[in-house]
């Protein structure tokens, strides 16, 4: 049995209470959501907060709903709830694709989407998925709420813009018609973190999308990359190459090439650099292919 | 040869032990809490190789909940800083001079609770002077390699042993004249048994009685008792080892670990029981690993595919201390069964053991004493030969398999294979798999793929035909630390005809409480439910060497049958007295002796048991009971075999492998409980997929262990395993009392080669002949690129 160092435990009853507790502990406390990242780190004594502030009673942060042209996801939404939501599946199948390959049912039952983003592990699947669909994070602190695009949320490995006295409360995703999205991941074993993964969301020009065998013109596209050292979890150059271009295999291949060329993977036991770079390309192409097929209504 | 196709009487009865396991009522070491018990924790080395400059324990000792801090220096004073290994080497209990692998035991804290013990570890201040580490086994004997074992007088290199088997000259002669010779370097990388329950012990030394009781999840309680007695100088009758329920062993729980010795010392020092349970990382980092064989195989053959000879050389990485558990005469275990299932003119192997700055061991993981490495090598080599000759690997095997009439077969490396019908097993496996259809499907698919199909996968079909040597073993040839590899059994029959069987081996999940009851039930004709099997407590059971190397059924199972037959013969005498006839005039049918020619005149075993303890007048010299004891010294090993076929789909764009099907035909002789046999096979097949595709303990250039958690050491899950397709043939062992051969390791031995062969079969269109395990997506993709990974080293 691995045992953590001594810590105090507080149970927050509301977002304001949680913020007050954070303020009181002055940076020495950590909030615990699902605990699936934080508790193992504490057991290995890689993390040693003086106090844990449990936010699992904050059911007001657990929701998935449509508001206007935005999908709103509470930070305490469990992976399993995201996976089970037809609303999410209808608008952003990329999130279902990603959730299906995040950990295992036990972790997904408890792990939260807020915890995933705040953990900021370079292999966290949702970071890339939300980057691909250009989500926005809502952060609350002592002086109120602020919003930060997910593409600016991560400041480095295991680091985010969320301050020690702040909470991530919500993720907002804009809903736009004519799109399709998909996520492709390679892992060594079911439940393992990604060797590499790519997510793509693509919006094809309305008229030509799927029409008469036409590939359609890419109105907009987002490409997220996981575990390959892509700046802010996305492939800006690949996206730029596709915008306004026909959604063809050749253009996808070029986007894949750019995605692979512009990431900075590190070698580890999951694979060497050349392989990860190859995967960044290959999986970008596959994700684009599937996202486009979905945009054209050719695939569920 | 006679073939018995039916299992024994009670067949696939449900496991008696499961009633408690499925209710969560098993008792594992960590479930045991003794009054006044303290908890131990081990401080481990962060370095693979470093000199210890100083150790300061003052702050730890000052912790209010700490009761003792033990260091190598303290143990040295008790002459306990070093302990013997099972291979006549020495291993540091707590380091005194140097640390020699990352995770090595440096100090032991005893405290009032687990948390305090763990906290106090951080209060111990150790100053190290790091030294260069020996990581690559292939460089361990380089002249400039740092000397790891400078504790040994005059040691100037990292050499442990050279060992060879077979006729070198005859083998070289065949090679020099052979039409075809293929050579391949094959690595069986370091893996770990990773049992669900980690290792642990509670030591309880009673100062008043002088009795030391050790609760420990050991696979070999009697061997532990004797070794403790010999090492610590404690009288053996004052040592009691209790091995309660065990959550998996796979060889990991054979040896004596420093933590156990520290718990004993801790109990002696504090006068209170001390529990030590390692955590997952400690288990993966410091306890017995498996494999780590760097092999070069060569096959000599004719151009039309007759295999003539096999030659092998091996560098065996034994880590920092030679802690492998092999029979004394065989430092490379039974590796010389590498000739496999084939009819050869000659064979030779040479094995060199080396020290490296890695955890010691090598006993472990369904090891069958290195049979796993041997089976993997030959089965990989046969596929390499098929690749070079352009022949079908099934046909090549069929052509070279030993024929039934060749048994008992004297192998070129000195074994006598007891029995087998190999072609029948392979034919059955091919039949279940639909081999020809698979090849047709593959051909069609390769054509589509070559034509540029988008997103296509490549299928591969892999075969492995293995022969194991298990059930060690005849005392004449086999001992561990001088203890012959026999096992005892005692059988008592109570007056009401219920029985208690006491055996020397201990189950780690194999279902002994059921199978051994079934053996007695079969021999005596009483219900298995009426037979209690007692095991795991050295005060309650006869001496014997324990459960590993698939030896329980071949040795202890034989002892059980023999002791039951002794009881039966005693019952015959009593029945004769009851029926007032001569025992010679009685005949046995299951459960009953009756008068020959007058079947109505008979007595059941229950009636006889009561009579034996009654006022019945017994013949002169016959004691009034049915009890018996025996020690079984096997005349030979047993040789289980099997034919496995694996079908995989490989995504060449990502290197991902999906195991689509797995057909396993096992012949383990007579099956006592076919359900339990199949369970053993299921587990072993999953193991095989794990080793072939993901399990690995690699090291970085500084000797840091890269597989020290389940995030890094990947075990397969149900998602990686197909629905197993099992088949069986039954070729009884002619020398085992009930014809059984043992099956605990068969699937672990046989399956890795089938999976690897399947993946490489899929990669044939890329001209890939070989790649080393584990075939992770990266390894597969790199093999396709023609730049294979060296899997035992860190990926750079
Ligand atoms: C075996 C296993 C396998 C896994 N595999 C994958 C995988 O394949 N892909 C993947 O993406 N992830 C994987 N994960 C990670 C898993 O998805 C995350 O652990 C989990 O989602 C993190 O969420 P949590 O709620 O458990 O966070 P916690 O562990 O509770 O917290 C993580 C961090 O975020 C902070 N935090 C949490 N919520 C907030 C908030 N609302 N505001 C501010 N800070 C907050 C915490 O203080 C902590 O620092 C795996 C985890 C395990 C245990």
Automatic annotation (TrEMBL), chain A:
UniProt cross-references to InterPro entries, sorted A to Z: CO_DH_flav_C, CO_DH_flav_C_dom_sf, Diverse_Substr_Oxidored, FAD-bd_PCMH, FAD-bd_PCMH-like_sf, FAD-bd_PCMH_sub1, FAD-bd_PCMH_sub2, Mopterin_DH_FAD-bd
One Gene Ontology molecular-function label: FAD binding
SUPFAM superfamilies, alphabetized: CO dehydrogenase flavoprotein C-terminal domain-like, FAD-binding/transporter-associated domain-like
PROSITE patterns in the cross-refs: FAD_PCMH
Domain FAD-binding PCMH-type: 2-178
A Pfam cross-reference name: CO_deh_flav_C
Alphabetical UniProt keywords: FAD, Flavoprotein, Oxidoreductase
Family annotation (PANTHER family): XANTHINE DEHYDROGENASE SUBUNIT C-RELATED
UniProt name for this protein: Carbon monoxide dehydrogenase medium subunit
Taxonomic lineage: Bacteria, Bacillati, Actinomycetota, Actinomycetes, Micromonosporales
């Amino acid at each position: 049995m691995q045992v953590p160092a001594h810590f105090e435990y507080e149970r927050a009853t509301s977002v304001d209470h949680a913020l007050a507790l954070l303020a009181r502990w002055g940076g020495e406390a950590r909030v615990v959501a699902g605990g699936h990242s934080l508790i193992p780190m504490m057991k290995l004594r890689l993390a040693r907060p003086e106090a844990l502030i449990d936010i699992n009673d904050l059911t007001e942060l657990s929701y998935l709903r449509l508001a206007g042209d935005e999908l709103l996801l509470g930070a305490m939404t469990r992976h399993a709830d995201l996976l089970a939501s037809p609303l999410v599946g209808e608008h952003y199948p990329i999130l279902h694709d990603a959730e299906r390959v995040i950990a295992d049912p036990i972790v997904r039952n408890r792990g939260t989407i807020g915890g995933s983003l705040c953990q900021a592990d370079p292999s966290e699947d949702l970071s890339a998925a939300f980057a691909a669909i250009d989500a926005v994070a809502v952060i609350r602190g002592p002086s109120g709420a602020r919003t930060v695009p997910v593409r600016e949320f991560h400041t480095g490995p295991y680091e985010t813009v969320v301050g020690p006295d702040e909470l991530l409360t919500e993720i907002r995703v804009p809903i736009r018609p004519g799109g399709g999205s998909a996520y492709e991941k390679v892992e060594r074993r079911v439940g393992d973190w990604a060797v590499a993964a790519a997510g793509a969301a693509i919006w094809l020009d309305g008229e030509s999308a799927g029409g008469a065998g036409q590939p359609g013109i890419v109105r907009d596209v987002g490409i997220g990359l996981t575990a390959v050292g892509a700046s802010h979890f996305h492939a800006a150059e690949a996206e730029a190459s596709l915008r306004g271009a026909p959604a063809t295999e050749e253009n996808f291949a070029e986007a894949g090439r750019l995605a692979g060329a512009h990431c900075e993977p590190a070698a580890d036991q999951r694979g060497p650099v050349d392989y990860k770079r190859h995967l960044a390309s290959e999986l970008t192409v596959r994700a684009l292919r599937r996202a486009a097929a979905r945009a054209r209504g050719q695939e569920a | 040869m006679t073939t018995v196709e039916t299992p024994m009487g009670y067949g696939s009865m449900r496991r008696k032990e499961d009633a408690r396991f499925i209710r969560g009522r098993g008792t594992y070491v960590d479930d045991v809490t003794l009054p006044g018990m303290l908890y131990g924790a081990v401080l481990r080395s962060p370095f693979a190789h470093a000199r210890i400059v100083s150790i300061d324990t003052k702050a730890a000792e000052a912790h209010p909940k700490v009761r003792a801090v033990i260091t190598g220096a303290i143990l040295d004073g008790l002459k306990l800083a070093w302990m013997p290994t099972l291979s006549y080497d020495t291993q540091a209990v707590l380091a005194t001079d140097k640390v020699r692998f990352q995770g090595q035991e440096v100090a032991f804290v005893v405290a009032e609770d687990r948390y305090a013990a763990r906290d106090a570890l951080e209060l111990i201040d150790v100053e190290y002077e790091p030294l260069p580490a020996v990581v690559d086994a292939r460089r361990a004997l380089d002249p400039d390699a740092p000397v790891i074992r400078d504790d040994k007088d005059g040691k100037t290199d990292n050499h442990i042993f050279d060992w060879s088997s077979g006729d070198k000259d005859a083998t070289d002669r065949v090679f020099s004249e052979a039409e075809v010779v293929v050579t391949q370097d094959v690595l069986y990388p370091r893996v770990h048994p990773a049992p669900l329950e980690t290792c642990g012990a509670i030591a309880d030394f009673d100062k008043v009685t002088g009795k030391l009781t050790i609760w420990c999840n050991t696979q070999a309680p009697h061997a532990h008792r004797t070794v403790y007695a010999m090492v610590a100088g404690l009288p053996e009758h004052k040592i009691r080892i209790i091995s309660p329920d065990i959550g998996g062993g796979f060889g990991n729980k054979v040896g004596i670990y420093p933590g156990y010795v520290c718990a004993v010392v801790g109990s002696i020092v504090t006068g209170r029981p001390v529990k030590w349970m390692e955590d997952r990382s400690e288990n993966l980092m410091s306890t017995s690993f498996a494999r780590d064989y760097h092999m070069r195989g060569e096959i000599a053959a004719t151009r039309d595919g007759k295999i003539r000879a096999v030659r092998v050389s091996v560098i065996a990485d034994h880590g920092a201390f030679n802690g492998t558990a092999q029979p004394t005469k065989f430092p490379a275990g039974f590796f010389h069964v590498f000739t496999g299932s084939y009819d050869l003119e000659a064979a030779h192997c040479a094995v060199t053991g080396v020290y490296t700055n890695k955890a010691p061991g090598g006993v472990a993981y369904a090891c069958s004493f290195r049979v796993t490495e041997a089976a993997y090598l030959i089965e990989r080599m046969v596929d390499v030969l098929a690749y070079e000759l352009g022949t079908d690997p099934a046909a090549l095997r069929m052509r070279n398999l030993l024929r039934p009439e060749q048994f008992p077969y004297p192998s070129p490396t000195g074994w006598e294979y007891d029995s087998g019908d190999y072609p029948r097993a392979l034919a059955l496996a091919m039949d279940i798999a639909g081999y020809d259809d698979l090849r047709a499907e593959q051909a069609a698919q390769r054509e589509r793929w070559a034509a540029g199909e988008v997103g296509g996968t490549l299928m591969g079909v892999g075969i492995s035909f293995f022969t194991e040597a298990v059930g060690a073993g005849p005392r004449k040839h086999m001992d561990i630390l001088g203890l012959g590899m026999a096992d005892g059994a005692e059988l008592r029959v109570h007056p009401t005809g219920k029985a208690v069987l006491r055996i020397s081996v201990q189950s780690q999940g194999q279902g002994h409480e059921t199978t051994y009851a079934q053996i007695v039930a079969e021999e005596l004709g009483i219900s298995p439910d009426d037979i209690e099997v007692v095991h795991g407590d050295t005060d309650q059971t006869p001496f014997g060497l324990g459960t590993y190397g698939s030896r329980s059924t071949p040795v202890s199972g034989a002892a059980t049958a023999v002791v039951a037959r002794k009881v039966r013969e005693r019952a015959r005498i009593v029945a004769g007295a009851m029926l007032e006839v001569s025992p010679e005039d009685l005949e046995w049918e299951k459960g009953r002796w009756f008068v020959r020619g007058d079947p109505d005149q008979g007595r059941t075993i229950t009636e006889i048991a009561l009579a034996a303890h009654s006022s019945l007048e017994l013949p002169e010299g016959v004691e009034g009971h049915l009890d018996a004891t025996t020690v079984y010294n096997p005349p030979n090993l047993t040789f289980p075999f099997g034919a496995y076929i694996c079908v995989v789909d490989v995504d060449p764009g990502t290197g991902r492998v999906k195991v689509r099907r797995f057909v396993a035909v096992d012949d383990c002789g007579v099956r006592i409980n076919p359900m339990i046999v199949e369970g053993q096979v299921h587990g072993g097949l999953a193991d095989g997929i794990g080793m072939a595709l993901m399990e690995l303990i690699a090291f970085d250039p500084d000797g840091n262990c890269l597989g020290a958690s389940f995030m890094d050491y990947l075990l397969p899950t149900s998602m990686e395993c197909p629905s197993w397709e099992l088949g069986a043939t039954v070729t009884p062992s002619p020398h085992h009392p009930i014809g059984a051969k043992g099956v605990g390791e068969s699937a672990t031995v046989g399956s890795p080669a089938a999976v690897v062969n399947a993946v490489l079969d899929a990669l044939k269109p890329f001209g890939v002949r070989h790649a080393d395990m584990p075939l992770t997506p990266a390894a597969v993709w790199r093999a396709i690129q023609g730049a294979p990974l060296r899997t035992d080293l860190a990926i750079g």
